[in-house]
């Protein structure tokens, strides 16, 4: 734990620039529709309002790639978009952010995944999803793998970003893991519900508590049950470490020797409710590992990223300055880290 001092964290952050990352995952478009409510509708007890405007943002693996680029990484992207206006918009965004998107396939059989958030007087009132959440056919999984494999040898880290939107399948996960192992590359996985246990062999896994409970069928009722959940996942996934985010309880890192609890940077508050925080935390966790940091340093910096990103507007991305500034004041946070051995 002596490696999480601010000087050593800053040294890891300074290695972010120029890291080469391959992101493979579900590409989404997040559409935010702003409405100014005027009254209750006569036909139903719901707000009636005026359209103010809309904002489109990259979502899912596309947002993860955007966050990584903002932090100085050189990012290659593999995934799917539909042959529609949102797929065209996403591809333009990839060019705008300097992402290498030659591995993005246009699928004529399914739409670009679109999430529409209706914001009424600034409050989130409704989300509507338009997408095909079924796994893509095996033939498409093979195409995605064929796009990823030539890139793997030239990157520092591969990141699998699963949003249960069909691009990430058990075949693709297995193929990426096998190719990365053959090339001696680290794989960082962000699973969702459907394929969580297919992330076997992924070097490092980062997810939230709800997803981990669903994957194991175990509920966390106390610290002992949390430990058992983590040990269960470590055994089944054969990963070097697993980082579980726990909302206002902070994050917990499991490795073969220890269970380490990192409290929220700013005390008890929900860091993980805002759009984009999940991707920022995963991106910093993976980028820290790709930059030579150890899992403890990566966990602290991921926690720092959660705090920093939660305070930014949704259209913004993290910067190295945001992280470096907060890494300078982690002394009190480090003193509140609790670590216990897996076997006592």
Secondary structure: elements and pairs:
Blueprint: H1 6-13, E1 20-25, E2 27-40, E3 47-60, H2 61-70, E4 74-82, H3 85-96, E5 100-107, E6 113-120, E7 123-130, H4 138-152, E8 157-161, H5 170-183, E9 186-190, E10 204-208, H6 209-216, H7 223-237, E11 241-245, E12 251-255, E13 258-262, H8 277-290, H9 295-310, H10 320-327, H11 331-335, E14 338-341
Parallel strand pairs: 1-4, 1-8, 2-6, 4-5, 8-9, 9-10, 10-11
Antiparallel strand pairs: 2-3, 6-7, 11-12, 12-13, 13-14
Helix pairs in contact: 1-10, 2-8, 4-5, 6-7, 8-9, 9-10
Overview of the structural elements:
By secondary structure, this protein is α/β, with parallel strands linked by helices. It has a single domain, classed as UDP-N-acetylmuramoyl-L-alanine:D-glutamate ligase (3-Layer(aba) Sandwich). The protein is 36% helix and 29% strand. It is built from eleven helices and 14 strands. The strands form two sheets. It has a ten-stranded mixed sheet, sandwiched between helices. A four-stranded mixed sheet has the order 3-2-6-7. It is globular. The chain starts with 5 loop residues before the first helix and ends with a strand.
Gist of the model:
The protein has 344 residues and is an alpha/beta fold. 36% of the residues lie in helices and 29% in strands.
Fill in the keyword field for this structure.
344 residues, alpha/beta, UDP-N-acetylmuramoyl-L-alanine:D-glutamate ligase, 10-stranded mixed β-sheet, 4-stranded mixed β-sheet, 11 helices, 29% strand
């Amino acid at each position: 734990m002596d490696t999480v001092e601010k000087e050593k964290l800053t040294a890891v952050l300074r290695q972010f620039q120029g890291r080469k990352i391959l992101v493979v995952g579900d590409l989404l478009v997040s559409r935010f529709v702003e409405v100014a409510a005027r009254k209750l509708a006569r036909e139903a007890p719901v707000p009636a309002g005026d359209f103010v405007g809309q904002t489109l943002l990259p979502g899912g693996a596309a947002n993860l790639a955007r966050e990584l680029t903002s932090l100085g990484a050189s990012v290659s992207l593999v995934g799917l978009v539909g042959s529609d206006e949102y797929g065209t918009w996403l591809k333009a965004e990839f060019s705008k952010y300097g992402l290498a998107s030659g591995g993005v396939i246009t699928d004529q059989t399914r739409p670009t995944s679109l999430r529409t958030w209706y914001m009424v007087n600034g409050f989130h009132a409704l989300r509507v999803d338009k997408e095909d959440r079924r796994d893509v056919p095996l033939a498409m999984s093979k195409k995605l793998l064929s796009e990823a494999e030539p890139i793997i040898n030239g990157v520092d880290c591969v990141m699998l970003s699963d949003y249960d939107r069909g691009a990430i399948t058990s075949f693709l996960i297995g193929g990426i893991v096998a190719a990365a192992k053959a090339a001696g590359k680290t794989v960082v996985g962000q699973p969702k519900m459907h394929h969580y246990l297919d992330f076997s062999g992924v070097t490092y896994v980062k997810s939230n508590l709800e997803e981990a409970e669903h994957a194991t069928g175990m509920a966390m009722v106390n610290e002992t049950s949390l430990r058992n959940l983590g040990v269960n996942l470590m055994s089944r996934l054969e990963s070097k470490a697993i980082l579980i985010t726990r909302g206002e309880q902070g994050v917990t890192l499991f490795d073969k020797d220890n269970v380490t609890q990192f409290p929220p940077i700013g005390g008890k508050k929900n860091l993980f409710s805002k759009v984009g925080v999940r991707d920022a935390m995963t991106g910093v966790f993976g980028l820290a590992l790709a930059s030579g940091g150890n899992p403890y340093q990566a966990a602290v910096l991921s926690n720092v990223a959660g705090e920093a990103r939660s305070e930014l507007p949704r259209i913004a991305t993290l910067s190295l300055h945001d992280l470096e500034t907060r890494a300078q004041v982690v002394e009190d946070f480090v003193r509140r880290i609790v670590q216990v051995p897996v076997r006592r």
